[in-house]
Amino acid sequence: MKKNYWKGHEELQQTPAFQKSKKQEFQEELPLLHEMKQVAADTQGSRRDFLKVLGFSLGAATVAASCEIPVKYAIPYANKPEEVLPGIANYYASSFINGSDYCSVLVKTREGRPIKIEGNPLSSISQGGTSARAQASVVSLYDGARLRFPKIKGKKATWAAIDKEVPNKFRAAAGRKVLLTGPIISPTLRKAIEEFTSATGAEHIVYEAVSKGGILTANEKSFGKRVVPGYDFKKADVIVSFGADFLGTWVSPVEFTKQYTSRRHVDKDHPAMSRHWQFEQYMSLTGANADKRLTVKPSQLGMAVAALYNEVVGGGGSVKLDAKVMEGIKKAAKDLKAASGKSIVVCGSNDPNVQEVVNAINESLGNYGQTIDLDKNYTAFGGDDKKVKQLVADMNAGKVGGLIVHGVNPAYSYPEKGKFASGLKKVATSISFNDREDETAENITYLCPNNHYLESWSDAEPKKGSFSLGQPAISPLFDTRQAGETLLRWAGNNTTYYDYLKQNWESAMFGQASGFGSPQAFWDVALHNGVFEVGTPVANADAAVYTGGKARVNSPAPRVPSIQPQETKVDTIVVAGSDEQLIVTNNSTDASVPATRSAGNVSAALSAITSAKASGIELAIYENPIMGDGRYANNPFLQETPEPITKICWDNAISVSQHLAEEKGWKEYDLVKVTANGHEVTLPVIIQYGQAAGTAAISVGYGRTKAGSKLCNVGQNVYPFVGTKGDAFDYNVTSGVTIEKVGRHYALPRTQTHHTVDDTGVLGNDRPIVREAVLDEYKKDKYAGNHVTEHFKHNLDKHFFTLYGEDDAYGPHADLFERGHHWGMSVDLTTCTGCSACVTACNIENNVPIVGANEVFRAHEMHWMRIDRYFSGDRDHPDVTFMPMMCQHCDNAPCENVCPVAATNHSSEGINQMAYNRCIGTRYCANNCPFKVRRFNWFDYQGADSFYKDTIFDNDEWVLVNDLSRMVLNPDVTVRSRGVMEKCSFCVQRVQEGKLTAKREGRPLKDGEVQTACQTACPANAIVFGDLNDKDSAVSKLFKNERTYKLLDEIHVLSSIGYMTHLRNRDADPHKDGHGGHVKGHKQEHG
Amino acid sequence: MKFSLHIRASVLALLLLSLFAFSETSYGQSRDDEVYKKGEAIFKANCASCHKVHTKLVGPALVGVSEKYDKEWLYAWIKNSQALVKAGDPQAVAIFEEYNKSVMNAQNLSNAQIDEVLGYLDIETALGPLVAPGGGGEGENNGGGTSGTTMIFLGAIAAMLLVIMFALSRLTGTLNNLLREKMGRLIPKSIPFEKRIFSKKVMAALSLALLIFVGYAAVDSAQKLGRQQNYAPAQPIKFSHELHAGKNKIECQYCHFGASKGKSAVIPSPNLCMNCHKAVKEGPEHGTKEIAKIYAAVGWDPDKGEYIEGYEEKPIEWVRIHNLPDHVYFNHSQHVVAGKVECQECHGPVEEMKVLRQHSTLGMGWCINCHRDTEVQFQGNGYYDEEHYKKFHEGLKNGDIKKVTVEDIGGTECQKCHY
User: Fold this and answer.
1) In chain A, which residues have their Cβ closer than 8 Å to the Cβ of B319?
2) Which of A633, A720, B312, B410 has the most CB atoms within 10 Å of its CB?
């Protein structure tokens, strides 16, 4: 029996609308008809009017054409900085820091403008990977909603006036004086805050909108250490996660994705991978990647942990759970016990009791000191829910005289609705460092805007002993000042923040390194590398290029995915030109020594968990991997990146299970009123497979009212649903939730079935688009799940079915690509987590326009790359496969034959070329593309057709771009105008650049030298790009792997993208799974 | 019969029209004359620093000067203009006043020499301004030059052919009439000339010709739309490539150092100019005037010989000459380093240009033609290794192919330049 695959509810139901859209490239008949009708209705034109307009247009065109070509100027620097060369990008190592989001990055600048973020391969934390948020952060630099100058009571002020007035007022404030910040990851900023608080008598309180406070409290109780410990998923053979979205949002997702996927690169020499169990309330990114995933209600999450405690440790009292879940827990416990010391149990709950039990389980498994390290802990977390609640109560009671808000937006995100704002009004001296006039700033007297991170000096210590430096890549665009400097100034310290930072590194960090002759040498190397790891070999200082305070790093070093899952050796850092390496020693931390523990008795915690009660529909409030806690709301690139699981852009919705929807009679996109905790919102319903039965989930981060652009104030704010359990914020609402149908529909911009690959095939033959297998099968059979490919390999000639019939003339044109390069790409479906960093990276690299919610609704999103998310198997407990889809660069491409003007054609290097200036917009190519990866510019989305700004020829019709936001455009890629087709180019600008560098240097192109934007962004190393003509290239080897298959290979388009089968490490026996009738991981038969 | 006559008339009309198209006027004088050359030499040595023939420089344009003034007066004026002014010669005073009382230096020339100069000026006046070398469309780049002489030659041939045609047409007409007479047929009454001219057929032919002409002109000018060949705008500093690259033989890439490194060849920043101009304070033509503009840009005090502290630098706003559309990617280093192309191949004889102008069309046809013909620096570049370019290496060894052109390695594919 075949495994059923579907992308959304409409596909499973095979609604007529879906079937129609699947068969068509363009979802609507002619999208412009709608606009045309409107125009026609608005205007009552006669033939005379028509002639008038025609005459005018002709006249205008003539005038425009006879105009002289405008004079352009070329203005060189008066005094050119040595490192800037027009047309050549510079890379600066820096640190992306936003709240607890952290990534060590290389900032690509062109002519002094940051235009792209790349991962820094030297970092042991992010290891060259990035997230969608880090990728999009460069866009927020050019955010027009940022404050352009400081303000006092809503009026423009100077920093001098601020410095004169504010510190005195704050010091003199009556009552409590509080500095309320988000998590502080920077050791130097922490020092500056200390200096500030001791000078002014203020308290420092850390507030996290999505709190990790529960873990801190639990670890304090268990081990006497108020920390989030360091986790190493690379060392874990078995991972059990209870609602912890560690690949998407939890603690350090980029690092965890790197670690996690390093154990999931499988080939015949290493047929091993870690096993991942996930028990969760809603479908998270991590759950979607789990080998085995079971759903539990929010109220039962703690009980599931308790059940595991019973199985692993024993003696925790009886727990009532669903039989299926219980069975899963038992199996997971078995796996865990077999992998003592090589396993991890994590939990996403903010309930300290639950976390305490998790600690006890991990301790019993001997994981501390192995996969979990209390000493190498994450420093970015420290949210103290209790203190924050007390603060808000005091504010309302008028006990707070001075308040500084930095990096948080509690008026929007604080759970108790309206309480923070009302309290704020009672604070006499209120100050905000936030970069915009957000919801909190509304009631604040002094706005002292902070710089963007790309304009600031900063440092970070994401994990104990791992340091990272952040340097500015551009001067502040506006009259803003770094928060750290403002704090220093107000503390009476007049050093610049740069000097302060450098002094701190020389006094605090230099001592932890050895092998450097002087603090300056240490500083230079650290700044050049962007990172400094205590106890890790560091390149000799002499080898680093000294560039006068500004580090310059060459393009990221090539990365080939590690196919050795067992390898845990520490990567060494080699700087070109040096063979010598020095070991930096440090006495303070030693991973092999277990932390002092007093975990012991968790019976109190257990009884608290098991006594939890629930009634009615349960609601989970969560953070999604794209939008975060709401701080990224005004970033259109993130808004338009489809959320990996729900595939919604520009909005949030309430996810419910199919059964609940059926039971209540809700259909998808029905509006419902959700009431809980005295708050109500109206949201559209979506049927989310993998949602626990009888529950619903809503993502935070939406419903901003003052994020910036009106277009970005989308969705509904659900923070007020967050309750309190003990002293901690509780993100599960387990009682008192009512959901009622409003009786209207809502047009949700959701991409899940846009551009669906038609899998009906010939003669009803289902095309196996997703191919998967179970690890055990793969061990026995290298072609497991991929027998179609095997069949084609041996019967090459028999199955050429092309548009032109079976004809040898359309056989493999291998000889065409014999000379030069033949580019190809491999995508591993096993390691791809669906995080969507690649999608965002591609958009920014290739100037892909952002089109807005209405256009996305009409399937007009312009993304060159999409991630198709397939559900499969059991509807209640579906498997998920993420399939990145981009132009397949077919060597026998259907799109090329139909272009009447040869605007799309094939290069000798196997790239399906698109010449925009030749395209006349017939859209035949898109109609003929079986993968539906071509995108048409229905409008002038980027203002490319505008002649001159602010003249009558300025015909900008799109609202999402302006001169400031255009600064992020990649100057090497054409900005497409209205009426042309576009699609993935294999980042041809990077290919050409790589080739040219090799040509100039007179050497062969090295494998891995050219990397596409999606590849460098990927934190999972799932994408490998390279030359198929190079026999030793990584991609050539992967193409020979038995797991590799070509999409729709039976239509013989000869695509250049090889997908690798999705392997899951689970029991092969279908009966043991307990999902009657659904055969798991069966072989795909070729009909 | 009548029909054929009309055809003849139409053809004649067309040919006449085409003759007008080649409306290159021919005169007895040419720039190759002895007088011209001698006069030009004297002019360049003595007059050129203040005068141009067709345009005003410091002094007036000298076009048609011998028609305007009496020869004797000119002798006197050229030899000592101030004497004339002081003597109160009305013509002399008028010129003196017109040019803001700037004195024309007395020239130490004999009457014969002045005659030669005037001869040169007369020829220049008659021939009109010279189109800059390389002008006239894409002609020069395609090899077949359309210089004045060839045009005259072609015009002469066309005229001759026309005369022959006319004669032959009359001849056949007469013979036909004779034949008719002999056969006793009626000789058709000859139609009056006006009627012939305004006949439907002639009108149709003329309209067709007009349509073709207008169509051609429209396409031709549409192609040139946005192209700026021979664009030579005035620059904020009268920088002369002739002086720097020609006379002083400064290597192109000393200033345009980006050409070997990347996309942009780079217009040098004034701080690079200062490498030499700290010492070179005066130019041969403009003295200190133009060099002072560099000093003003970077804040250099030439008297003290040091940079002015706290000076706000003022970048120089050069007018950009070579403009490519946004959808074209061009990289200098590709051509200069990998392709080993000389700068002059695209930019023309820059070392002879006092005012820089765009030498080539920069049109796509121009690019493609070069890519088709140009041989890749195949041997000796490690990039074109045996593994990837086996076929070419073998072909070159066997002698099957003589050279590998840019086109052969994919240099005419769309996405080599458009992405």
Assistant:
1) 71-74
2) A633
